[in-house]
UniProtKB/TrEMBL annotation:
GO cellular component, one term: cytosol
Binding positions for GTP per the UniProt entry: 232-237, 251-257, 276-279
A Pfam family of this chain: MnmE_helical
Binding site for K(+): N232, T251, I253, T256
Subunit structure, as described in the record: Homodimer. Heterotetramer of two MnmE and two MnmG subunits.
Positions annotated to bind Mg(2+): S236, T257
This protein's encoding gene: mnmE
Keywords: Cytoplasm, GTP-binding, Hydrolase, Magnesium, Metal-binding, Nucleotide-binding, Potassium, tRNA processing
InterPro entries: G_TrmE, GTP-bd, GTP-bd_TrmE_N, GTPase_MnmE, MnmE_dom2, MnmE_helical, P-loop_NTPase, Small_GTP-bd
Enzyme class, broadest EC rank: hydrolase
Name of the featured protein: tRNA modification GTPase MnmE
Species this chain originates from: Enterocloster citroniae
Length: 459
């Protein structure tokens, strides 16, 4: 099938050492042949060059020399898009890469749509849909865990798990259909018991993937973290320590923080979306009361609550209110101001709240390392391992897995109810098709277009 030849700037639009303009399609080599001249100024047909070679020369737009460049030639199907592809490495100024792109357009290419290069890689069968989505995740990764997970998905970690599951389901469907078509030669006697055993394994594997989505969301979006405590407990000081700068105002005056303050923090591979809040207490101050109400609302929506206890003052009603509020939630309790005379005993506080308490001094920056380790433990169950563990980070994938899980559980229910075998194949096929949506089988054009529309122009 003949395709348009597309082109786009593949590097960020900023002044840099190198800029890349990418060309892909049936006429990619025809386009570069019109633009490229060697170091002696002679026109050379790169369409005759060997694939995966680099050529030094100049890019011309008509008779105008535009820039000195390196040109990479990649013949399909051995390229990112599986089409003939050319990449022009030029100087990286914004104006320069725009002029190179204009020359490419003048020579017969058209401007690529967002994500069109990756879309062509998918449509041409070089990658499946889950791998294509992982390309965007790699680009948008904001922390080490998200990047490692996305790279794993790009290399096919999710695809392999899904294909293995589908192969097992398809085998069962084929066996049932064959037995129903030819009962004289293929017997279903005792089949239900064997299928139930196979189903338990499949259900366990799909449920594991669904449950991994919680960690996956934290990887990609970050941990929504709210710092709670009574006034002057040291919440803003902790926020500044985590940020590494004086972002929140810190004074000795109780109630200094009147509103929520939100910042993104990166701690040793962990992304935190941290909200510093007004001190929790009963107050007649109208403005402070609004801040306290906002603090409570933020805490209700949080993934993690960090409760800062002022160890230099006895626990009061505000502390007890917060302790009751966080009961049953993911939370970390910090006994702050350990550099001062402590009047709240760590052991007593642990007995009261029923969980570990970490002594810290936000002022002296003590105990922060232990806090980071505790956050990692809460959300990642210890150090993540990417050699064989697969994490679902895409909401679309999670929804498809949940539907597949329901279908597999319906098959199990049919077996327990001693339903006819043809009932099994209906729900097995539903599970097979739901899993297929993840890797891009039987998806409609609108969904494909929506996914790739979120990509950047040059990818």
């Amino acid at each position: 099938m003949k395709t348009d030849t597309i082109a786009a700037i593949a590097t960020g639009m900023s002044n840099s050492g190198i800029g890349i303009v990418r060309i892909s399609g049936d006429e990619a080599f025809s386009v570069i042949d019109k633009l490229y001249r060697n170091k002696n100024g002679d026109q050379v047909k790169l369409s005759n060059a060997r694939s995966h070679t680099v050529h030094y020369g100049f890019i011309y737009d008509g008779d105008e020399k535009v820039d000195e460049a390196l040109v990479l030639v990649m013949k399909g199907p051995h390229s990112y898009t599986a089409e003939d592809t050319v990449e022009i490495d030029c100087h990286g100024g914004i104006l320069m890469v725009k002029k190179i792109l204009e020359a490419v357009i003048h020579a017969g290419a058209r401007t690529a749509q967002p994500g069109e290069f990756t879309k062509r890689a998918f449509l041409n069968g070089r990658i499946d849909l889950s791998q294509a989505e992982a390309v965007a995740d790699v680009i948008n990764a904001t922390n080490e865990y998200a990047l490692k997970s996305s790279v794993g998905q790009l290399s096919g970690s999710v695809s392999k798990r899904i294909r293995d599951l589908r192969a097992g389901i398809l085998y069962q469907i084929a066996f049932i259909e064959s037995a129903l078509d030819d009962p004289e030669h293929i017997s279903l006697d005792g089949y239900s018991a064997g299928l139930k055993g196979e189903l338990e394994v499949m259900i366990s594997q799909v449920r594991e993937l669904v449950e991994s989505a919680d960690d996956g969301r934290v990887m990609t979006e970050g941990v929504k973290t709210v710092i709670l405590g009574k006034p002057n407990a040291g919440k803003s000081s902790l926020m500044n320590v985590l940020l590494g700068e004086e972002r929140a105002i810190v004074t000795e005056i109780a109630g200094t923080t009147r509103d929520t303050l939100e910042e993104h923090i990166y701690l040793q591979g962990i992304s935190l979306n941290v909200v510093d809040t007004a001190g929790i207490r009963d107050t007649e101050d109208v403005v402070e009361k609004i801040g306290v109400d906002r603090a409570r609302r933020a805490a209700r929506d949080a993934d993690l609550i960090i409760f800062v206890v002022d160890g230099s003052r006895p626990l009061d009603e505000s502390d007890r209110e917060i302790l009751e509020f966080i009961r049953g939630r993911k939370s970390i309790i910090l006994l702050n101001k350990s550099d001062l005379q402590i009047v709240v005993e760590k052991d007593d506080l642990e007995k009261m709240c029923g969980q570990k308490v970490i002594p810290v001094s936000a002022k002296e920056e003590q105990g922060i390392g232990e806090l980071e380790l505790e956050i990692r433990h809460l959300f990642y169950h210890g150090e993540l391992k990417f050699n064989d563990q697969v994490y679902i980070t895409n909401v679309r994938h999670k929804e498809a897995l949940e539907e597949a899980l329901k279908s597999l559980e319906m098959v199990r229910g049919s077996i327990e109810d001693q339903m006819p075998e043809d009932f099994y194949s209906i729900d097995l096929m539903d599970a097979y098709e739901q899993l297929g949506l993840i890797i891009g089988e039987a998806v409609d054009d609108d969904l494909v277009n929506e996914i790739f529309a979120r990509f950047c122009m040059g990818k």
